[in-house]
Amino acid sequence: xxxxxxxxxxxxxxxxxxxxxxxxxxxxxxxxxxxxxxxxxxxxxxxxxxxxxxxxxxxxxxxxxxxxxxxxxxxxxxxxxx
Length: 82
Hints:
By secondary structure, this protein is an all-alpha fold. The chain has a domain at 19-62. The protein has helices at 21-30, 39-63, 74-81. The longest helix is centred in the middle third of the chain and has 25 residues, at 39-63.
């Protein structure tokens, strides 16, 4: 038994907005001024950014105490001379 060929979608030919995802994406693209993020989403993102900034500060403070190129101490240079 052979498979039947799929018919082409009629979604592109429809002119009214039916609530389908493709229609909604098209409507959002055509009306960017009417689309805003929800309050819950913006609050969540603001909280995430605060946490990220706090973690970054903590990392920077922790890394500040490490000396990358420490100055040679006098005790080590005296040991080399002997």
